[in-house]
Amino acid sequence: MKTLIDRIDRFIYRVKKLNRLIDQKTSIKGVIKSVFGALFLSILVLAPFMLIVINMFIYTKLTFFLSLLLVLLVMGWGFLYYFFYYRLLKSYFPQLEDVDTLTPQLFESSIIAFIFLIIGFVVLTSVF
Questions:
Q1: Spatial contact of 110 and 76, defined as CB atoms under 8 Å apart
Q2: d(CA 4, CA 107)
Q3: With contact defined as beta carbons under 8 Å apart, do 73 and 53 qualify?
Q4: Core-most of 10, 57, 68, 93, by most CB within 10 Å?
Q5: Is the pTM of this model over 0.85?
Q6: In the prediction, which pLDDT does 73 show?
Q7: % helix / strand / coil in the chain, to the nearest 5?
Q8: What is the pLDDT confidence band of residue 60, given thresholds at 50, 70 and 90?
Q9: HSE-up of residue 9 (Cα within 13 Å, Cβ side)
């Protein structure tokens, strides 16, 4: 058990170290542009799928399945947002090309997806 806790601790330390390195090489203006660009692109990519799923709620027998699909789309939005965020950061700041951004990207998007999963389950259990 101690080795698992040590591995988790080392992984979190590595993510913090990479985040500090990324923060040193970026500026507020570029980060704000990356955040808004990632929000725009991720919403633009997921909007057609969300609209299709929401419009299919007229079929009452598929309501539970469509609700689960909607929760999965919202969870996927977190991964898509962080993908675009780090991609835009690398394009605005070329000195980040040699920095491993995949580890913080997957870590942060997994946390967001887990939070959306919990919220989705709470909403689904209260509705159904």
A1: no
A2: 17
A3: yes
A4: 93
A5: yes
A6: 94
A7: 90, 0, 10
A8: confident
A9: 6
